[in-house]
Amino acid sequence: MSFTKFLPLACFISAVYAATYSLSDNWIGPGFLNTWTHENIADPTNGRVNYVNETTALSLNLTYVTDDTLIMRCDDTTVLSASGPGRNSVRLRSDKTYTTHVAVFDIRHMPQGCATWPAAWETLESDWPNSGEIDILEGANDVSPNQSTLHTSANCTMPATRTQTGTATTNDCYGGDNNNAGCGVQAPTTDSYGPNFNENGGGWYAMERTTDFIQIWFWARNDASVPFDVSSGPAQIDTDTWGEPTAYFPNTDCDLASHFGENNIIFDLTLCGDLAGAVFNSDGCPGDCVTYVNDNPSAFTNAYWDIGFVRVYQ
Ligand SMILES: *[C@@H]1O[C@H](CO)[C@@H](O)[C@H](O)[C@H]1NC(C)=O
Ligand SMILES: *[C@@H]1O[C@H](CO)[C@@H](O)[C@H](O)[C@H]1NC(C)=O
Ligand SMILES: *[C@@H]1O[C@H](CO)[C@@H](O)[C@H](O)[C@H]1NC(C)=O
Ligand SMILES: CC(=O)N[C@H]1CO[C@H](CO)[C@@H](O)[C@@H]1O
């Protein structure tokens, strides 16, 4: 068998596809105030929040930074008037946009509590869903799904069988189908979301987007298998060494190059709205979601993000 005949070709292929990237952006603490924008907009998902601008967020201490920390929270002191605006909160968007890239998130704490619907995600708001949406970490009311999801324009589905540690929920990514459920994958462990994530000191999420696949990994804070690339932020990374992803979205039945365009990175915290409000009671939360938010400021004491860093590699 003339095996050696194929060796040069194999070497060539592995050189072309070696998944190495270089650090292009490293946001820590005060860096988020310079090149990210506090979106002072009406919540597109109809939540009971009032997204404030940066000046207001800093003066109310809803956004707070130190050298190595970014905190974003919603108000937890004000009883709201039922006829007035929603609870003050923060929606922070990177000014830069990205196509193919790797984003690594060090998250020490995420918003928790009934009514909360936090997300760390990427999209282009002005061209949704044609430029795609990648929800890296998202959930509601402290309960499952601790889910990663794509939302796209028509004609994008995921194969039922994939190499991933998570469990697919729906495989049709088109936002116009299934009430915009998208194609979701639930993480296999409870420490990937909400109170269990927080008790553990959080962890790392990472997302790699190429034209061939989008994949997402999660490592809990105490997971000794977290790659050095992820926890320590070297100048070069190699995603080939990161192991099986939590969620894997290949281009088998979805032309990722045409369904995904330039995307911003976004952190937000809304309350109630299209997701958390719709499943408020079935998730075990009491009464009416909006009334709960209006009347119970102290229920939101733990409704905050604590971000160590966001690093982007290209
Ligand atoms: C921020 O919002 C506050 C409250 O609505 C407003 O008074 C202020 O002018 C805004 N600041 C900027 C820089 O937009
Ligand atoms: C602002 O929030 C941070 C983080 O939650 C906290 O450590 C700090 O004491 C707060 N500052 C004030 C003035 O309340
Ligand atoms: C759907 O996408 C496939 C590629 O994944 C493409 O070949 C096909 O033409 C598309 N169909 C429509 C109706 O756009
Ligand atoms: C905290 C939480 O919601 N954990 C859920 C994560 O997803 C799995 C299923 O994949 C659920 O069993 C957990 O309850």
Automatic annotation (TrEMBL):
Gene Ontology terms for molecular function: hydrolase activity, hydrolyzing O-glycosyl compounds
Organism taxonomic ancestry: Eukaryota, Fungi, Dikarya, Basidiomycota, Agaricomycotina
Statement: the UniProt record of this protein carries the keyword Hydrolase: yes
One Pfam family of this chain: GH16_XgeA
Domain GH16 span(s) in chain numbering: 14-284
Signal peptide start-end: 1-18
The keyword Signal is annotated on this UniProt entry: yes
Name of this chain's protein: Glycoside hydrolase family 16 protein
Keywords: Glycosidase, Hydrolase, Signal
Family stated for the protein in its record: Belongs to the glycosyl hydrolase 16 family.
Organism (species): Neolentinus lepideus HHB14362 ss-1
PROSITE patterns referenced in this protein's UniProt entry, alphabetically: GH16_2 (PS51762)
Protein's GO biological process: glucan catabolic process
